[in-house]
Amino acid sequence: MGIMDASEVCIEYLKDTNILFIGGLLVAISVEHWNLHKRIALRVLLIIGVRPAMLILGFMLVTAFLSMWISNTATTAMMVPIAHAVLEQLHGTKKDIEEGNDNPAFELQESSTQKEETKLDKGQDTPASSELRAQKNQEQIRFTQGMSLCVCYSASIGGIATLTGTTPNLVLQGQVDSLFPENSKVVNFASWFGFAFPTMVILLLLAWLWLQVLFLGFNFRKNFGIGEQEQERKHAALKVIQTQHKLLGPMIFAEKVITVLFVILVILWFTREPGFFRGWGNLAFANEDGQSMASDGTVAIFISIILFIIPSEFPGLIQDPEKPGRLKAPPALLTWKTVHEKMPWNIVLLLGGGFALAKASEKSGLSDWLGEKLTPLQHVPPPATAFILCLLVAAFTECTSNVATTTLFLPILASMAQAICLHPLYVMLPCTLSASLAFMLPVATPPNAIVFSFGGLKVSDMARAGFLLNIIGVLVITLAINSWGFPIFSLDTFPSWAQSNTTQCPLSSPNSTVPSP
């Protein structure tokens, strides 16, 4: 189409964010390879219990918390296998209780619904029994869909809580510092956390309620395990799960090392360049401007390389089973054969395509065209302007990457705010948060694509759940920017650092976002 050279497009397919994604997935693959997810899954079940509503809430809280500190993609890649393992164990446990059997096998199955359907075909059942089994199987399928969606949705929601939680947040900080160099770091870790964390908590709880209603129904007594029959099933299921947890035995050397490396990874990510204190990246690897030259991708690849080096058993020699009498070194925690089998390279290409699209939008002049279309908003009241723009960004981010959406929109919104004497952050902040509301399509964001690749979901399932969640998200963000956002960022006045050469705005803006008395 003559928009970009091939060399420019190719660079977009392996940027630093893609390297971060690959490094995070390498750690996730090692966790799954050594079955650490099984131990975590059983432990989660023991702590939270097997009540459906609380199980979904538990996974949403864990995923959102992890997503605050590490990438949404890596969090989802880590949590989805655990969620499916928990479901497999739970569904297997319920079947064992009904049949009076133990459930020693605990294997991760990507197509658990197909497995359940195969089980139903065995044996001759009465019509009433077959109908009851089919109904229970349908309930399990819907519960599996709800669990899958709760992971990818809570990863996207959790990422908005911290400045480093997701890339669009950092795009906003970079754009504000670039467009308004005299702003004295108004967007920093502390100010962002104060604004976005309450927003994240409210949205997460509302998303939990919506998923519960959509996939579990309105029978809240059943959802929360209230009732004599549900209590008996809960106690019996917990007894079987406790037995399975004991059968795992103590943690082996490989599990312990991977656990330690994962904790180190999270700590290094969090302390590299946190914003509210000088991180190790600023101290040890600072550039001329004092910013860290090492990125989150650097840390992820560093830990991944260590996984390829450390042996899976306590350092020493073991007997070679193929050649008796000879000794050999134990295999490493992670081998390339394992990576080749389990790495979703299609998601890497999906990410790269999003970045290439963002660059092409900038190069082709699409950004300028959209800017012209937004000028009529100067005649609309500021709260309505923010709401309309949030809806526009939330719709746009379903078709393009979150990073592409914020990269495209933020310069346009900054120019528009200066032209109509509106505080730039009043429109830039909510639109950045809205870019993370990618809930409707599998291609909208990598967490959605990862969940969709595990099977059991149709596009219509995700679109139905995500449509209302998008509306809820925009309403919560609008509430946030018009309430606690005001004192944090002084949105009631037009800042001096946002003055432009072409437009001179009074510091107490006539188009102030504060409603007149």
What does this structure look like?
This is Solute carrier family 13 member 2 isoform X2. It comes from Castor canadensis. This protein is mainly α. Helix content is 66%, strand content 1%. The chain has a two-stranded antiparallel ribbon with strand order 1-2. The protein starts with 5 loop residues before the first helix and ends in a 28-residue tail after the last helix. 42% of the residues are buried. About 5% of the residues have low confidence.
Q: Which terms would index this structure?
A:
517 residues; mainly alpha; 66% helix; globular
| Beta-strand segment tally | 2
Structural class: mainly alpha
Q: What's the average pLDDT?
A: 76
How would a textbook summarize the main sheet?
A: 2 strands, antiparallel
What are the secondary-structure elements, in order, as H or E?
A: HHHHHHHHHHHHHHEEHHHHHHHHH
Write a short abstract of this structure.
This is Solute carrier family 13 member 2 isoform X2. The protein is mainly α.
